[in-house]
Amino acid sequence: MTENIESVKQVKGTMPKAIKMAKQMDDDFGQGVASFYKAIWKDREDGLSMKNKHLMVFAVACSRNNTNSAKKILVKLKNHGATRTEVLDAMMMAAWTGGIQNFTDISSDILPEMELIGF
Fold it and tell me: Which stretches make up the Carboxymuconolactone decarboxylase-like domain (predicted)?
């Protein structure tokens, strides 16, 4: 079981605080959170690159005004070869998004359409 938690370091690059805290609460909960992280951050054939994943979470952090997270992600972006222009584009996308209401409005139309198209 501990291997699952420790293997997140290889996938994510660091041990997320959420996993440490979840494990302190309950070992099974810690394992579940670790599995969640691994599923999101693992390399998948034809999936997003680590750079693109980090650009996405950077844009989300910026759109939520989460400065601490955005700063940490900037380091990851640098390590994954993101350019200044890519980071600026992500920041502009964050400025464009309207938050959760925008997501709710769009997702109710987009998710069924994606299924129709075959995604």
Answer: 28-103
Render the burial of 32-67: b for 16+ CB within 10 Å, e for the rest: ebbeebbeebeeeeeeeebbebbbebbbbbbbeeee
How far is residue 9 from each of residues 5, 88, 97, measured CA to CA in Å?
Answer: 8, 28, 31
Q: Which residue's structure tokens are 């609460």? A: 25
Q: Could you read off the pLDDT of 49-103 as tens digits, one per residue?
A: 999 999 999 989 888 878 888 888 888 899 999 998 999 898 888 888 866 666 6
| Average pLDDT for the chain | 83
Specify the residue for token string 């955005």. 70
Residue type, 100: I
